[in-house]
Design brief:
With about 210 residues, this protein is an alpha+beta fold. It is built from 5 helices and 10 strands. A 4-stranded antiparallel β-sheet has the order 6-8-4-9. It has a two-stranded antiparallel ribbon with strand order 1-2. Strands 3-10 form a two-stranded antiparallel sheet. Strand 1 and strand 2 form a beta hairpin. The radius of gyration is 23 Å and the shape is elongated.
Length: about 210
């Protein structure tokens, strides 16, 4: 397997050391669109610095990803957004525990979570432009220990996938807004955690 320095050398074939990449300052990449800047991933930044240390000037970075839907022997490439940003979501609703025979004496976090799950999908349908894209999926729900006891907490976990930084921020804010409004309406409390993952991959048209 090629080492990082050989990979970069093969990509550029030029030598022009730059002292900037030896500093502790974060390296930034300017996309073709004006006024849009994105921080380079730390691993990529380290490899660029390594390449410069070896006297290789990096003109471009090409990343590869498996894509099973393409025919064998095919390489797919295009400019613009290609793969989505992925952020984790954890929502915990807290109510008050009690017996199933006396639900009026409890605050049911299961019903609260159900209301949230049913309503929050409206964000994608009614708050995201038709020509934009977002996917909100919850794949885990946990709460309760017995069928005849209303639990005090329910936690649901999922992911948000978006293709632009603006939609990424809008989706995160909307999920938090829906969670809070649902909890308020059901007399529960809620804690929302957004775990930032990788940003969207936006290929430079150049």
């Amino acid at each position: 397997m090629n080492s990082p320095e050989l990979t970069f050398a093969a990509m550029t074939g030029r030598t022009e050391p730059s002292p900037r990449l030896h500093s502790a300052e974060p390296v930034e990449h300017t996309r073709a669109r004006p006024n849009r800047r994105a921080r380079v991933h730390p691993t990529v930044r380290w490899r660029i610095a390594l390449a410069y240390a070896l006297g290789v000037k990096v003109d471009a970075i090409a990343a590869l990803h498996l894509w099973p839907e393409l025919p064998p022997g095919t390489v797919g490439i295009r400019d613009g957004a290609l793969t989505a940003a992925t952020d984790g979501v954890i929502v915990t609703f807290t109510g008050s525990q009690g017996h199933a025979a006396h639900p009026h004496k409890c605050v049911d976090p299961i019903v609260t979570a159900g209301q949230f799950l049913a309503n929050v999908q409206a964000v994608v349908a009614r708050e995201i432009a038709p020509l934009d894209a977002a996917v909100l999926t919850f794949g885990k729900i946990a709460g309760g220990h017995a069928g005849n006891i209303i639990p005090d907490t329910v936690t649901i976990e999922g992911t948000i996938r978006t293709l632009s930084p603006e939609t990424r921020e809008r989706m995160a804010a909307a999920v938090e807004r829906f969670a809070k409004s649902t909890a308020d309406g059901m007399r529960a409390s809620v804690a929302v955690t957004i775990r930032r993952g990788v940003p969207p991959l936006i290929s430079d048209p150049r």
